[in-house]
Every structure is written in structure tokens, then in C-alpha cells.
Write a structure and sequence with these properties.
This protein is α/β, with parallel strands linked by helices. It contains 23 helices and 26 strands. It is 31% helix and 19% strand. Strand 15, helix 21 and strand 16 form a beta-alpha-beta unit. The structure holds 1-deoxynojirimycin (NOJ).
């Protein structure tokens, strides 16, 4: 049967069933009723099939992409979801097979669409630096439009793990160290991915991951164990998940780690008690890649059968890739080791999403090659990517106003191993789309700058060094080229794949001899701008102290080079602020701004003896959380609180006057921090509780408002109750966590 005939027949039979139902004068069935009817017809093996996911092909350009074993599994209804298949052509092949199965239950297609599909946006940590929720939502929206047009129903994003340890390579996928900022961003991403509603052909289901506490892996070593207090879990690590779920996230992925001795994929506490119990989550849970099977290596279960039993019983609905549900669940139910009711609950959750997506009404609704062609890489998507990329660049230093560079510069030297990189700018976790000339879809810094300057300027180039290795043979040429130029831009950093999954590092310096290259160029005395590509905070003390200007560019996606040029030449005024603290040395890690005061706080940054400090290091980060410069300056003035006492469920209205005191328009992220002076459990020295990103013309003043309520003051007490305690609070408003411009105090009374 041809694909078209199959499609037409399936849709006709579905329509016929609906017409018969309607002709009988019946009310249309609810999704739950439809699920119940379907489940009545399913064998136990077919039910288990719905809980089974395998990865498909990653290369849909071959004639028939589906592998033999998958083919049989799908056409016999024993596989419910495929991930990593992409593109309507490939996905159609899989869906055709599913519709040959007895009950014709459509497949669900998932993919890691982390920061864009065809048009890539900055890596998530970079986007977090924008502190621009609208821009972040737009980025997820574009990713969803493109992915859905390519046949995808479901993205494995957003990743909301709090990252306080830059040795952990996966900090690049998250929103940084702060729970409040990460929670706001989590919600924005979910809204962007899921759009107006599931079932629209421009929306994909979100999957908030990795549940839970994966970011706290001991030593920053990926997949490592996590041991933390429940209070820390609830206060710091769980809120971004809750925020994503409140925003409607349809699914959740478990994490690889064990949490206090229990692997997360079989944690009844996390999955049944918290997620499905306390939080009333009605979507479904998918394991991480083979994380169920890996519980034998953890030493939590003896074999795959026990792994399946533990995971399903704990509330893990779908098995990604390990196949242990498929092999064991039916038998476990027969042996009464797994309750049929638990299996049914899991199946119901998965089927409900398939109905919500509209797949039973039209299994091919996301498969429209014309829409795919029209949507991928649209000019407006590229434009959005360029804007978000420029918003993600952090200006770390700008001595003697080296930046912005003048567009009428005559000779500009571009030096370093990153300058001419093209495809690498897509960054880790980008989706490759083989049908198009992928390598040419990301703009290098060289091309972006050349396009900006046109023919009147001369661009000089020397690579200088590789990213890694000891080869210094290119230094002399780089110094010669720099000496000839009016200014120099150096591009250095981590290779794009040095931060990401399984990319933990014990050293965070600029790799290879790149910092030596910077030293050699700075020694020429030319105005030097250092641009750093990385997926995490790096340690580059010499550069931070000696290079006149530094831009932290992370990995910026398809439009990287154009965005860099926009910022270098002042068409965009940088406005990003660091979402993670930058350490001075690896020995300071984990380092984060919202630490406790301890009983022996250091009275000043150089104090060492008998206070909480290191004897061999100043007690400050290199760059603090929330820090980032602009080409203009801002004055913070006139802090007002409409009352000094917050009672019960009341509110305090806070306002300041923000003035752009420079000569160019700019955006400032005004940050509000609170400190609870005395409480039944010790509280952080400051906690972010609000922020506003404000655009001001040169000379303009605006009122910036915040509201403080009981929620802003609440925390988990020793009994794990979320509550605010009466007493004094410090209120701090500033341009970073370490640059507090205005302060006040207020009282909370019940
Ligand atoms: C493993 C990763 O931990 C997870 O984030 C990802 O979604 C899956 N692999 C699928 O690629």
C-alpha cells in the first residue's frame, strides 16, 4: 500500500468512527473516554509498547531509514515512541509502520531540540545571560515552529538543572546558578515550546529535565551521585521544575544520578510522592537514556527485570532506550510484582498526550513537507536568532572605552582559532539537518565583521594558535599582523564540544596556549578586544586583568558572527548579565552568590585567618553573578517603599528612578535582592527576588517598580514547610549581586 493510500484510509476510518458516534446523537467523547475505550482493546504487550521508546535513525537521507528490529517492533505495536528521527520524510516512514499495527496507535516523535532546530539560537546558558524572558520565549517558539514543521512532537527541553559547578559540562544547557532566574526562564521556555496549545502544528511538547538534582553531581563529574539535604533540594533545585510544570510542561525526564542513594529513575519520593502526588502532575515521565537499565550498575537492583519493576512502580512511565520494560513488564505483571493499575496509569498518561496532540485524528498532521520547507531557516527566524544572540553577549570589561569599535576603522586584525569557525557556532546540542548545506548555515565572526565593515576596511588575519595543544609557531605571525592594525579582535575559548553532556573538566583555563597568545598580542600595545567562546564560566585571570576589553560570547548559534559584529561596532549595546558566578580558580568551586553568611564571615576580601576563606586566595569571585557592562552608564536613585511593614498577605511596592547617564541608548537589568536577617534556619546573604530589563534612551529616566509579597519572603523551614517568618529584611537593588546601588530595610509582621 502506498503511503498516500495508507494515510487516506486511516483518516477515513477515523472520520467514519467519529461520524457513526455523532450520528448516534452522542456527545463527543472526552479524551479520557477515548483513552479508556482504546485501552479496553489493548493487550498487555500493546500497553507496554506505549511505554517503550527507542532512538531511530539519525540520517534520514537513505532510501529506507527504519532498521529491521525497529520495523518489527513498531508494526507489531510494541514501540510507542521514537526519538532522533527527524524530517517529515523519515518520520513518515515510521508513522506508516505504526499504522500497520493492530490498533494503529500513532508514534510519538521526540528530539533534543535544545536551542533551535534548523535556525540555532545561543546555547541555553547564553540565552539566560540575556535575562530577557520575552527573547527566550521567542527563541523556544521559533525552535518549536521549525521542529513541529519537521515532524517532531516533543522536545527534551527545557533543562532546568541548577548549575553551581562550572566543572560540570552540562551547565551550558541550563539557566545558571540562581533558582529564581532559572524558574522564570523555565516557564518562558515551556510557553515558547508549547505555544498556544498542544495539537497546534507549530507547538511541541516540552519535557522538563532532569528530575532531579542532576546539577549537583559531586565534584562536577557528570553522572555522579548527589547527596543533599531535603531543604536544599526543595529550596534550590526543585522550584524550576515546579515553575515549568505550572507553565504547563507536558512531560518530565528523570535524571541519571542517584539522589541520597536512590537512583532518580526509580525514586518513588520524586516521582510518585512529589511529582504525581503533591504536584498533581498529569503528564508522563520518561527515563533518561538507559537510566533504568543503569540501575544495575548503581547497585540498586540485580538485573534488568528488577530495574523495570523498580522504575515502573516508582512512577517512571516510559523507558527510553533500555528496552527493559519491553522485555520484562508483562511478565512482571503476570507475576504480580508490578501492579496492572500502575501500568495502566502510565499508558493512560502517554495516550492522553497522543490524543491531545491530535495524532488519533490525523497521525500525519505534523508531516507536511511543504510546511517543513517553508518554515525551516526562515529569514524572520534568522533575524530573531541574531537579536537573541546579541542580547546574550556579556561585556565583561571595557577599559578606556575600547568598545564599540569605529565602523570607519581602516585596518582591523582578527586573530585566534575561533575567528573563522562557522558550523561550530551552532554549539553543543544543536540539531543537524542533513538535507541542507548545514556547514554554511552559521555565520563566523570573520564573515559577520567583514559584512559589517564592507570594502573600505582591511581585515587582517592570523590564527595564532589552535584551541588545544602546545604549538606556538603561529605567534610571531599573529604579533606581526596585530602590529600592522589599528585595533585587534582576538577569538579564543573552549571548543564547542568541550561543554556538554559527558564534558566535565577538572581544569577551566583557556585551553592550550591561547592565554599566551593573548599575552603576546596585548604586549603590542594595540587596542585589544578579547572574545571568549565557551559553554561555561572559564578561568582567565591574566586576560581579565590585562586585556582592555572582553566579550563573553558563549556559543551564539546560526547568526553568531552577525551578532558579534552588531555588538563590536555598537549597533547593539550589550545588556547581558552573568547567570553564573565566574571563579578565580577551580579551587573556589562550587562558588555562588547566594551562600550563607557562616559564623565567621570574612570582614573583607583579603582576610584569611580564622574566618571562612582560603589562605591562598582573595575571597571574591572573578566576576559575580548578575554582572555585565554596557556602552552606557546607569544611575540608580530614589529608592521608595510604599510602606516599611509588610503584613500578612499584603504587598510592598518598591520603586527606583533609573537614568541612562551615558551618550547612547541601552538596556539595564535592574536586580532586586532580599536578605532575611534572622530566621529559624540560616538564610543566604542575598537572594534574587525580582528583576526588570529596562530600555532607556540616552539621558532618559524611568521609574522601575517591584512588588514584594509574602511569597518573596518564604522559604522551607526545618519541617519543610514553605512559609515566611516575621522579622527584619534587607532590600538591595543593584546592577549585579556585588554592585548594590540602593538599600533599605523593612519588617514582615503576620
Ligand atoms: C541523555 C541526556 O541526558 C538527555 O538530556 C537527552 O535528552 C537524552 N540523552 C536523549 O538524547
Amino acid at each position: 500500500m502506498t503511503t498516500t493510500t495508507l494515510k487516506t484510509r486511516t483518516i477515513l476510518s477515523l472520520l467514519l468512527a467519529a461520524c457513526v458516534h455523532a450520528a448516534q446523537g452522542a456527545e463527543p467523547l472526552s479524551i479520557d473516554q477515548r483513552v479508556t475505550q482504546l485501552m479496553k482493546r489493548m493487550t498487555l504487550e500493546e500497553k507496554v509498547g506505549q511505554l517503550t521508546q527507542y532512538s531511530g535513525d539519525a540520517d534520514p537521507t537513505g532510501p529506507v531509514a527504519v532498521k529491521g528490529s525497529l520495523r518489527d517492533g513498531i508494526s507489531s505495536g510494541q514501540i510507542g515512541s521514537i526519538f532522533s528521527a527527524k524530517g517529515t520524510r523519515s518520520i513518515r516512514q515510521y508513522q506508516d509502520l505504526a499504522l500497520q499495527s493492530r490498533l494503529k496507535i500513532p508514534l510519538l516523535f521526540g528530539l533534543d531540540v535544545i536551542h533551535g532546530y534548523k535556525t540555532t539560537f545561543p546555547i541555553p546558558l547564553a540565552e539566560a545571560a540575556s535575562w530577557d524572558l520575552e527573547a527566550i520565549e521567542r527563541s523556544a517558539r521559533v525552535a518549536a515552529i521549525e521542529a513541529a514543521a519537521a515532524g517532531i512532537h516533543w522536545t527534551f527541553a527545557p533543562m532546568v538543572d541548577i548549575g553551581r559547578d562550572p566543572r560540570w559540562g552540562r551547565v551550558m544547557e541550563g539557566a545558571g546558578e540562581d533558582t529564581y532566574l532559572a524558574s522564570r526562564i523555565a516557564a518562558a521556555r515551556v510557553k515558547g515550546f508549547q505555544g498556544r496549545q498542544l495539537g497546534d502544528t507549530d507547538a511541541v511538547m516540552a519535557c522538563v529535565k532532569h528530575f532531579a538534582a542532576y546539577g549537583a553531581a559531586v565534584g562536577g563529574r557528570d553522572y555522579n551521585s548527589v547527596d543533599m539535604s531535603e531543604r536544599m533540594l526543595w529550596e534550590t533545585y526543585l522550584p524550576p521544575f515546579k515553575a515549568a510544570l505550572d507553565a504547563g510542561a507536558a512531560t518530565v525526564m528523570t535524571s541519571f544520578n542517584d539522589l541520597n542513594g536512590i537512583p532518580a529513575s526509580a525514586s518513588r519520593y520524586l516521582l510518585r510522592d512529589t511529582l504525581k502526588g503533591k504536584w498533581h502532575f498529569t503528564g508522563f515521565v520518561v527515563s533518561d537514556w538507559r537510566s533504568i537499565e543503569e540501575m544495575t550498575a548503581h547497585g540498586f537492583v540485580a538485573n534488568n527485570k528488577e530495574a523495570a519493576q523498580a522504575a515502573l512502580s516508582a512512577g517512571n512511565d516510559m523507558d527510553m532506550e533500555s528496552g527493559v520494560y519491553r522485555e520484562n513488564l508483562a511478565q512482571l505483571v503476570h507475576e504480580k510484582k508490578v501492579a496492572l493499575a500502575d501500568v495502566d496509569d502510565a499508558v493512560r498518561r502517554v495516550l492522553r498526550k497522543k490524543f491531545e496532540l491530535g495524532l488519533f485524528d490525523d497521525p500525519y498532521k505534523f508531516i507536511d513537507p511543504e510546511r517543513e520547507r517553508a518554515m525551516l531557516n526562515k529569514p524572520e527566524h534568522r533575524q530573531a536568532a541574531r537579536e537573541v544572540a546579541a542580547k546574550s553577549i556579556v561585556l565583561l570589561k571595557n577599559d578606556r572605552a575600547v568598545l564599540p569599535l569605529s565602523k570607519s576603522i581602516r585596518k582591523l586584525a582578527l586573530i585566534g582559532p575561533m575567528i573563522k569557525l562557522g558550523v561550530e557556532n551552532h554549539g553543543y546540542w544543536s540539531v543537524t539537518v542533513p538535507e541542507v548545506d548545514y556547514a554554511h548555515q552559521a555565520v563566523s565572526a570573520w564573515d559577520g565583521i567583514a559584512a559589517k565593515l564592507g570594502k573600505d576596511a582591511t581585515l587582517l588575519y592570523a590564527k595564532g594558535s589552535d584551541i588545544e595543544g602546545e604549538d606556538r609557531s603561529g605567534f610571531a605571525e599573529a604579533v606581526r599582523v596585530a602590529s600592522e592594525a589599528d585595533a585587534v579582535v582576538i577569538g579564543v575559548g573552549e571548543r564547542w564540544d568541550m561543554s556538554g553532556e559527558a564534558r566535565s573538566r577538572s581544569k577551566l583555563d583557556l585551553p592550550g596556549v591561547q592565554e599566551e597568545l593573548i599575552k603576546a598580542i596585548v604586549a603590542t600595545g594595540k587596542p585589544v578586544v578579547v572574545m571568549i567562546n565557551a559553554g561555561r564560566p572559564l578561568v582567565f585571570d591574566w586576560t581579565a586583568d590585562h586585556a582592555p576589553a572582553i566579550l563573553y560570547n558563549w556559543w551564539l548559534g546560526s547568526e553568531a558572527g552577525n551578532a558579534v559584529a552588531d555588538v563590536l561596532f555598537g549597533d547593539v549595546n550589550p545588556s547581558a548579565k552573568l547567570p553564573m558566578t565566574f571563579p578565580r580558580s577551580v579551587g573556589q568551586i562550587p562558588i555562588y552568590y547566594n551562600h550563607f553568611n557562616t559564623g565567621r564571615p570574612a570582614p573583607n576580601p583579603t582576610a584569611t585567618e580564622w574566618v571562612s576563606a582560603y589562605t591562598d586566595l582573595i575571597n571574591l569571585p572573578k566576576f559575580p553573578f548578575g554582572f555585565g557592562l554596557s556602552y552606557t552608564t546607569f544611575r540608580y536613585a530614589d529608592l521608595k517603599l510604599d510602606r516599611q511593614t509588610l503584613r500578612g498577605d499584603g504587598k510592598i511596592k518598591v520603586s527606583i528612578q533609573l537614568t541612562n547617564t551615558g551618550k547612547v541608548a541601552g538596556e539595564e537589568v535592574v536586580q532586586l535582592y532580599l536578605r532575611d536577617r534572622v530566621a529559624s534556619v540560616v538564610r543566604p546573604v542575598k537572594e534574587l527576588k525580582g528583576f526588570r530589563k529596562v530600555a532607556l534612551a540616552a539621558g532618559e529616566t524611568r521609574t522601575v517598580d517591584f512588588t514584594i509579597d509574602k511569597e518573596s519572603l518564604s522559604f522551607f523551614n526545618a519541617a519543610l514547610q514553605w512559609n515566611a517568618e516575621p522579622g527584619d529584611f534587607d532590600l538591595m537593588i543593584g546592577a549585579s549581586s556585588a554592585d548594590i546601588r540602593l538599600q533599605s530595610r523593612f519588617v514582615y509582621a503576620r
